[in-house]
Every structure is written in structure tokens, then in C-alpha cells.
Amino acid sequence: MGDKGPTIDEAVFCRRLKVFQERWKEDGKGFGKADGVTAVVVSGAASDENALRYLKSGALQLWLFGYELPDTLLAFTKEAMHVVTSGKKASLLQVLVDAARENAQVQLHVHKKEKAEDGSSQIAEVIKALEASGDPPLVGYPKDRVEGKLATVWATALKDSNLATADITSDFVEVMAVKDQGEITNAKRAAFLAARVLKDFVVPTIEGIIDEEKKTKHSDLARDAETHLMDPTKLEIKLRKENVDVAFYPLIQSGGKFDLKVTQTSDNSTLAYDVIMVALGARYNMYCANVARTYLVDPSKKQEAEYGALLAAQQAALSAMVEGAKLSSIAEVILQTIKDKGQEHLIPNLTKSFGHGMGLELRDSGTSLATKSAGTLRAGMVFNLAIGASGLQREAEGKTKFKDYAFWIADTVLIKPDRAAAEVLTQICPKVWSDVAYYFKDEAQDEGQDEPANGHAPDLDGMYEGKKTNLRSEGANFQAQEADRQRARNVQDALLKKVNEETLRSLNRARENGDDTSGATRKVSDVVTYRSMADLPQLRDFQIHVDTAREAVLVPLYGHLVPFHILCVRNISSNQDGDHAYIRLNFNFGPSFEPCTKDPQAMLLKELSFRTSDLRHASKAVQEIKGLRSQVNAREKERAERATLVQQEALNTRGRFLTLPDVWIRPNFGGKGRKMTGQLSAHQNGFRYTTPKQERLDIMYRNIKHAFFQPAKGEMITLLHFHLRNPIMVAKKKTADVQFYTEVMDVEQTLDVGRRSMYDPDEVEEEQREREQRQRINKQFLNFTKKVEQDIWQREFGDLDLEFEVPFRELMFDGVPHKSAVKLMPTVNCLVELTEQPFTCITLAEVNIVSLERVGFSLKHFDLAIVFKDLTRDVFKVDAVPSSSLDVIRDWLTGINIKWYESKINLNWKPILKNIVEDPEGFIESGGWDFLNQEGDSGDEEDEDEEGDVEFQPDSDSDAAAESSEDGDSSEDESLASEGSDDEAPDSDADSEEEEGMDWDELEEEAMREDRARDRSDADSDEEANKRKRKGGGGGGSGRSSKQRRR
Asked: How far apart are CA 75 and CA 43, in angstroms?
């Protein structure tokens, strides 16, 4: 609404009025069963702002005018439209008279009712028009419970007129069922609002209640949810508050009391920690959307199987909801899927229908997804797809306080044209099992444990009375850790089959598709330097020349200047010998040189050497050839990279856009001078980065594979990072990673020479200023990411499932992925290192297995090798990972269902992957990746160690031990000799090693020489000490006494 009051969109009104008339006049389909309706009357109800109601009369008014007009009567004939209303509403509609006549070919008559009148005279005029509409006239009307003064007057006048009537409620639904683009936009925004409130408010609130064991009523939580639905700004959702409303009051149920109807209200019972059901409905510009989810705390295996069947049924229904499909077929698909999942016992407990059409009304009659429905799906229809089952009971007694439970999964769905897959408008609210199931009990406790027959555990404390035991294995923490380890081992064992099957499918797929080895570089054999002799330059000097324009080197051979293209030159060098210089020119040759493979029988020139007395010319020729070669190679490399680039769509810069100012880019644009900040703008279909020098870089949303937001916490920068599906060119280099960042503080700081106190006011103020600057920049980046996600990605690019991922710092570990030690952090979908270049971004969905190498108790570091599903890719190695991070990495990999192995050595992966690719079937038959499992070998080694410990008997004679200690050098030599003799028998390699070293006699002589040298050094040091003492007046007696003591 503006300052001039409400206005009606004339174009929308005329277009929809024309649709209404055309549907009425359509041959064989008109209104009413007898196809004889000559007039349609819709009576509006009285105004009630506090009532949440759905009426066909109100829906038609909203559809035509965009507003609900209380106490207004609409009467239609096939040529005219009559409106009975009062005051301002009549003036509002009067401006539509000309537009209706010209654009919809309908004559609009507005009958204004004065404030003191009850509308009898105006209704009498309408009755006359209805009586003249046909012979005989038949008035159609929707079945509504309409109350109000004008509605009462109309009902009386209709009864007195003896006009025949017919119920055309289903025809109203049919007219408004297919939504235009404006209506679809409203439905999407309503669905987005409901899903966001459920995902970002209700679910975190329930999780907090359970974690903190609070007592919260259903009604209180529902009231808070309604507050967030009515005020989207609480979740920073950019929807106008005056345009939103609730489609129904939020419904939250738990504790075994469930009713799968949105007309129910949340009771005052306390939220129970068992099965929690949440349903939310929102309206935007009066268009409805709803979403429902079921959350389970410590569920049983049976509940998991039942939920999986219902979720699979919903997914099957979504696949079947295409244009032209029958409504009944959707219900049949749902029932068949539940049967296929082995959950037939759920069928009697299912809801009667599995959803219905939606729009201006929460439920459009006649569009139910039931087995007896007769309608068909049309593009542009919006449905509530809801699958629910109630009256279920948990199978085991005593497991939870409440036995009864129910399931409810509901989403808002849009039917797409051309039989495309239906679009789920509430997709951002997750519903997979891992997102709705919460486990707080141990698995053994949940599944039940055997107890003694007498009902209580034996008194173990009495067996060890008087003895205090602190065994780690008896602690609750240790038992829980052991249970977690066993659970992780079970998960890893189950993953082996899955990984082997995925490997075989990938290899077979690659074999079917074949390898694309076609290069994009220019072939040397296709290069033409001079097309004829006339193109050769006329040079008088018979010496080496460089033709920069033709990219050629002309060298003198047998009295002629012979040209060679610079791509044929491998390198050039020169050296000076007195008054002469020698120039050596090497050419490309061998299997890697393309002309060699093209003509294997050809004879190639390998090198040429020249001698010249012109030293200046020699130096100049060498520099020119090197410069030309470097320039041409760089250009060819860039050309090859550009040839492999995927053509991107054009950036749409029209309309409003979001900006993030004062950011740097990596990799930078290059060039001279200090780096300059630029501005990152988010447009309708992509980002654009611009600098003050008008340098630009466009990144399309559909080319973004992963997006990351990493706030500054211990780092010097806050950054946004984009990992692309297809590389782009940045500063003439191809890259798949682009980053925009801002320094939260100066990287270089001047250090004062003097010491500064920690209580120095200037230093405290400086630290506070740095903290505030860091928080401000982090918040600025965070707001930008939220706006991009909510206003662009989730609304217009929901199919891409894009979101800014934030690294998990609690899972951070050190490592060396390239050349320097960095900190790697997992995200939801990746393993990343975004602070130092080159960046690391590993997509976890592309990882096949992970090998933890050099793992041992005595080693401080180990290596991490990542093997991809595409076995043609090189294995990615992260070296020097601290052993303290081993358990964290194991748990993380198990949690994301990635198979991992441990080994004590580094593996040579290239031949391993080569053998797997060459014989995939043999690899799977031999056990697949299980060849990396070394648990069996470790068991054998432990047995051998135990045997060795038993065989070892220490010497009990302490005197003998003392003697061996005193004569350590000789015993060490004897042990070396014995080891050498033992090795000579079984291993021939030991003989060769022994021959390379010194024999026993040589070792004996070397030891004697070292002893003599040591004695001489001792004597020299004693003599020098005596001289110093005599010079210092210490006396000779003192010197002799000291010497004797030393002996």
C-alpha cells in the first residue's frame, strides 16, 4: 500500500477475469454438471480480521482483485459482471470498468450501496440481470458458510426469486488450480518462510530443550514459532512483514498423542523426548504453503525402517508427480512403495489421502491425492504432498514412557511443465534419517542387554573387599569408548562392500566411455613460418638472425639462412673462449615431440654449434632467442588452457545487487604496483569482482561447486572461497579456486625496541581496536553470505543446493599437503585449507578410500593418502600429520562413511592403481581394497613378539652384568661381530654389505689408533695444565697431587 491507498492491478484483473470467462464458456466443460449454468454468484462474508478462515468467495476476490472485499456480492453472467459493495470499495472497483470492457470483453457494473442501506435495492437489480441470463436461468454458487448482513439479504432475495441453483465449488477450484508466474512466486516465498522457521528456529530450539532437559509446553513452543512466522526479520528473512501470515496455527505434538490434522492446536502438554511432530504453515500475499517433519529421540530399528519406507514412498511420489499424471496414480505409487519396502503393516495406519492442492486456500477440494480421485496433474499446480501414519506402537515394553507414536512428512510441491520432475519448494528443510534421528543412549542400552535371572547384578565389590581397583577397563568412560570403537569397526566393515562396488562401477563406466586423450595444444607440424621463399627476409649478414614477427630463428647452413620456428628450439647457450664465442642451439626431439610421432622415419636435427668473433652479436642473438621462446611458450600454454575452458553464460547485471566492498582476490590479477582492493557484487546469476582499474572477473552461480566462508579466528584474514566446477582464467592462468578476502589486521607490524608492559593503555586500546575490527569484518562477510543464500540461491537456484560452508575448527589438524605445514579443516562436503596458496579443496563425495600410512606407537607423525573414485587421478597426500590427530581423523572419516585403512609403511600408489585399472574384475575377486587391511599381519607380529619375550632370559649374576658394563666397548664389538656372522648364513645381501665395510682386524687397528690418539691428547692437556699452575704460583706439590688424583 502506498500513500494514495490500495490499488488493483488492472492487467492481472483483466487476465484472470478472461480466464474465468473462457473456462465457463469452454465447450463440453462449462460450470455445473448439466453444463447449463447461466450465472454465477459469490457472496462475500463480513469482515473479521482475527479469524483464520478459508472461503471460496474470499479466494475468488483475492484472485481477481488482490484483496478480500468483505460484505461484497459478485454476480457473473457470460457478458457482464455485477458488484454490490459500499463506499470506498465501490470507488476502488469503478476504475476497472473501462479495462474490463476493452481487455476482457466483459461489462462491469458497480452497484454502490450507501452506508445506511442494507443493499436490497442493489440486489434486486442483480436478480433482474440473473433472470435475463438464460431461459431458464441457472445460478451457480460455491458452497460456503457466509455470514453478514449483505449475505443474509442476498439469501432472502434468492429464495424469494425462485431461481434455480447449482453447486459449482469444484469448478472454482479448477479455475484457480493452475498458478501463473506471480502466484508461483508467492507460493515459493511462503514455502521458503515456513521451511526456514522450522529449520533455523524450531529444530534448534527443540535440540536445546532436549540438551538442557528443559520443560517446555507444546503451546509455548508453537506460540514462539508463530511469532517468527509473522515477523520474518527475526531470522533475517527479507520478506515484508505486512505480506506474511500463518496458514494454520503451528502444530507441535509429542508424548504419544498425535492427530495428523492441521486443524488441531498444540496442547499444553510438556514436550516429551520421544517422537516429536512439527507442522508449520505460512502465507505470503495470501498464498499458502506448509511443511511437516517428524523427529525421533533414541528410535528403535523398527522405527527407522518404517520411517525409511515412508520417506522412500514420498520420493517415489515426487518422481511420479509429472504433468498429465492422474491423482489416483500418486496414491497407488505410495502404497506400492511401502509394500516393496516390507512395511505392509503401515497401510492400515496411513492417512486417507496423501495430500491435496493448495493456493489461496490451504486445501483445494477435489484435488486430493487419493486412490479414488479422478483429476489429473497440470503444470503450475501447487500441492501439499503429505504422508502420515498414526496409531503405531513401539514393539518393546519398558523402553520408553510412551508406546504410541506417529510419522508425518509433508512438503509443498510445484508441478513443472513438459513432464519435468516436480519441484519441492520446502527442500531446504532436511528430512533424511540422519537429520531427524537423535541418539542419546548407548546402542547396547537401546537394544537391551541380558540381565541375571534374579533381576539384579551380582555384588562384585564383595569379591574384592578391602582392595581398591582403578582399572581403566572398569570405568564407564572406557566402556563407552570401547562401544564407540566397536561401532566404528562395524561401520568400516560394512563400508568395504560398498567401496568395492563403487570402484567396479566407476572403472566399468570409464571403460565404456573411453579415454579422451585429444590434446588442445597446437601441433608443431601444423605451424608454417614462411609460406614461400619470397617471404624470407633479405639479409646481407651471414649470421644468426631472429625474426620476431614470424617467430623464427634463421641460422646459416651451407651458405643459406635456414629458418626454424621457435617451437622447435629446446634451448640455446653460449660461452666465450678468448676473442671468440661459441653458440650451441639444441632442438626438440624424441617421442614427446609431436613431429616424431607423426613421421617416425624422419631424420631430425638434434643440435647446431656456431663459432663467431662478434661477441656482442652472440650475446644479443642468445638473449633474443630466449626471450622469444619464453614469450611463445607462455602464449601457447595460455592458448591450450583456454581451449579446455567451458563457455560460461553471460552475467545478468540488471536489477538490484548485493555488494561486499574492499576485498582482495587470490590469485590476483598481477601487474605492476601495489595490490588494490576491489568490490564483489552478487547479481542475478553470478558474482562480479571489479577493481578501480576496471579489471573484472565473473563467476557464475552454476559454475560454483563449493562455496566457503571462513571467519578470522586466529588467522589474519576473513575470506570467501569458491571452488569451481569448470576452471576459469585469472591473470592468464587457469584456476578452479578463487578467493576474496580482507585482512582483519595489519600483517606487518612495527615492533618497538623497548619492552612494552601488558598493562600499557596504548597496547590495551590497540588490542581492543583489533578485536572490534575483526568482529566487524566477520559480521560484514557473514551478512553478505546470508543475503546471497536467502535472497538468491535458495529462491532462484534451489536445484544447485548451494550454501556457504564454514570449516569445523574442532576437527582441524596439521599437515603438509604441498610444501609447507598448514592447518586442514573439514567442512560438510570438503576437506579444505584456504589460508595459504596453493589451496586445498577435496570433495568428500569424490573420495573412495583413505589410507593412513606410517602409523606406529613410536612415531610422532603419519601420512594421509586420499584415493579418489576416479582412479585415473593422482593420489592426494598429506604428509607429517601429528599422531595426536589420529583418533580425530578416524572418527571423522567413520562419521562421514569413508572407508579408511592403516599401514606402517608408505605405499607406492601409481603401480597399485595401474593394476586395478587394468584388471578391475580380478581386483574385486581378490577382495578389493581389503588388501590394505593389515590387522591379521599385526596379530602374527604380536605373537612373534610374545615368543621372543618368553625366550629372553636376563642374566641373574650381578657381577657378570657389572663386568659387561665396565667393558662396554668390547662387548659391543663382540655383539656386532656375532650379528654379522648370523646374517651371513641366511642372507646373501649381507655378504655384499659386509664386503663393503671393514673386517674385524681393521676395526681392531682403528680402535687402537683412536686409543693412542686419546692418550696423547690427555697427556698434552695435563702438561698445559701444569704450565698454567706454575705460572700462577700454585707450587709443584699441588700439581703432582692433582695428577695423582686423576690417575
From this structure: 8
Name which of 176, 180, 175 is nearest 380 in CA terms.
180
Locus of grid cell 686419546: 1014
To the question of pTM greater than 0.85 for the whole model, the response is no
CA neighbor of 691 nearest in space, from 721, 658, 661: 661
Which pLDDT score is estimated for 5? 62
Point out the residues of the chain with pLDDT beneath 70: 1-5, 27-35, 45-52, 146, 395-402, 441-482, 510-522, 641-645, 671-674, 746-760, 934-1004, 1012, 1014-1047
Which DSSP category does 1032 fall into? T
Residue 33 burial (CB count, 10 A): 12
Q: What's the rounded Cα separation, in Å, for the pair 689 and 687? A: 7
Residues paired with residue 556 on neighbouring β-strands, in sequence order: 561
Q: How far, CA to CA in Å, does 553 sit from each of 361, 584, 611?
A: 81, 13, 17
- Contact (CB, 8 A) for 119 and 153: yes
Q: How far, CA to CA in Å, does 335 sit from each of 239, 303, 340, 466, 1017?
A: 38, 18, 9, 65, 98
Contact 356, 289 (CB under 8 A): no
Residues, the chain, total? Answer: 1047
Spatial separation of the C-alpha atoms in residues 261 and 251, rounded to whole Å: 9
**In terms of DSSP H, where are the helices of 136-202?**
149-161, 169-177, 181-197
Handedness of CA 748, 750, 753, 759 (dihedral sign): negative
DSSP line for 794-820? HHH-GGGT--EE---GGG-EEEBSSSS
DSSP assignments along 32-53, one per residue: STTS---EEEEEPPPP-TT---
Q: What is the pLDDT of residue 757?
A: 57
Cell triple for 184:
508461483
